[in-house]
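Worked example 4.2. Below are the chains of a multi-component assembly; read each line carefully before continuing.
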Amino acid sequence: MIRVFVEAVSLLGPGLAGWDEASAVLAGLRPYAPAPAVLTASPLLPPAERRRSVPTVRLAMAVGAEAMERAGRDPETVATVFASSSGDPDTLHTILETLASDEPEISPTRFHNSVHNAPAGYWSIATRSRQPSASLSSHDESFQAGLLEAVTQVATAGWTVALIAYDLPYPEPLNSVRPIAGAFGTALVLTPQPTGRSFARLDLTLDRTDMPATRMADAALEALRAGNPAGRALPLLGALARVASGDGAETVVLDLPPGSHLVLQVGPPC
Amino acid sequence: MSIVSSLGAGQDATLDALRTGRGGLKPCRFETVTLDTHIGEVAGLDGVRLPDRLAGYDCRNNRLAELALCQDGFDTAVAAARERYGAHRIGVLLGTSTSGILSAELAYRQRDKDTGALPSAFSFATTHSTGSLAEFVRVRLGLEGPAFVSSSACATTSKVFASAARMVAAGLCDAVVVGGADSLCLTTLYGFHSLELVSPTPCRPFDADRRGVSLGEGAGFALLERADPRPAPGTVHLLGAGESSDAHHMSTPHPEGLGARLAMERALTAAGLEPGDIDYVNLHGTATTYGDAAEDRAITGLFGTRTPVSSTKGYTGHTLGAAGIVEAIISVLTLRAGLIPGSPQTRTLDPALRSRYLQANETGRMDRVMTNSFGFGGSNSALVFGWAA
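Applying the procedure described above to all two chains together yields the following structure tokens:
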């Protein structure tokens, strides 16, 4: 079992505009009303990078910045783990279209925006953070991969880590072969020891017994969980919302194929 | 551990090339590409066949991985480890920058003229998807531990060593298959061309007349296990890993090499070593004007001007997401062989660079070597390997 503490959580998704507004929905206290998420370029970025930022960068930076602010942390001191099933979908589509044309010259900005770790690069520039940063991918289990990496960094290196997960739909024709439901991002700030800001603890075990993944009670939230790799975080966010509002500990199960699960005991920090 | 690059398949072919000065760069004839450049292409990938049950994963990148898995007894060594630890106790943490994107590039040429749809044979999840490499290798090796891809551009297959070491330290795995594969594609060839970073001649790291990178492809794997308290003679250990971010620019390194130096310092700290303990540094050294200058500043600032350094990208080309594992394995091979590799096309050292850059091979016993990998987004990683104490 690995124990880490949660200082802050954030999210941005359809009808889920930030933790203050969304936590009551996730805790099941208010009905969920989906509406398209609005992505804006981060004010933390210098003007040139702000102009060049693409949807994945906007989404990742928005949830990262919200979590850092809620934790009261200077991002310069925080390591980061970015998790997403893909590089920027719009950028990849445009590059693929260009390369298939008679004029396969792609723009340099588009090329550097196509790398999977583009959000990590923009984040480092915006926050002036030279801390280690990972950018991970594991198709539908990308959030789980990021959580494993973040938790092992906290537990073995003793770092404070921001886990930033995000996934966005592709334009056609890729959307038909790889449908992703909505734009959804979330971030968690994790520490090895409880701090004045800690509001929850996570006890993580890798389990091989047969148990179903935790689902969302609301059908529309469940569709977001099942349809967006970063949305796989929703059951954990729901448990964190309930713990934050004073409820007791609960267990969340996330799939980790083949045959494993991440079992998370989510409870008050002490 | 196993390795494949344009130098050939396997450790022996790689070491032989370094000993004899035989480079792998040739004029670019890849696909429909019309760029005037040299590339390090792996021969024979078109003839590599994945096992029938894994045919759905067929793409250039997974073929390259398959070729590497079959070298140097790697798949047999993993099978033995599987018996020892159990399939679920072995993780698979691999790096790639572009995975099987070549499959998507080809599929986009075959879109339906009326509907725009991609051809039905195109399988996104098993080829283009960034995570497909780890999934393919995990299934191919019959493993069931945590498996994911790290994609931090050209630092990524170096960074997986650090992730794997943490995974073992946390007790989530007993062993981890690390490494990865990055194969040639139009995206990176035209992408580096757009940045005016592609050299018309075979690349010349640290040369006064260097004119950019030669792109290449490569793959390699290593089985990382918890250190034996009584290691067998000749065992090589990962002594330390260091990671950092530049906080400077998306595609240009920090001019003073601050992020690079921080990664090297962190690797030394993790290993409990001083700069003077390192006998050779295998540089990132891509032969770009700014990149080599920044790394030289970082090296001379930390090590001074006496530690021998060189880049082996004049041999292999820049294998991008595979550079970390290709050069980690080259570093271990040179440690074992007592061979410090020179730099084939580097003729006139840039007088502005002050590192002790080796143009010709040197021989002698080494105890500890460092290898650097830096990537877009300002991602930096350094590894230290040495004889088990």
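Take a moment to check your reading of the output against the notes. The first helix of chain A runs from residue 19 to 26. Chain A is about 35% helix and 25% strand.
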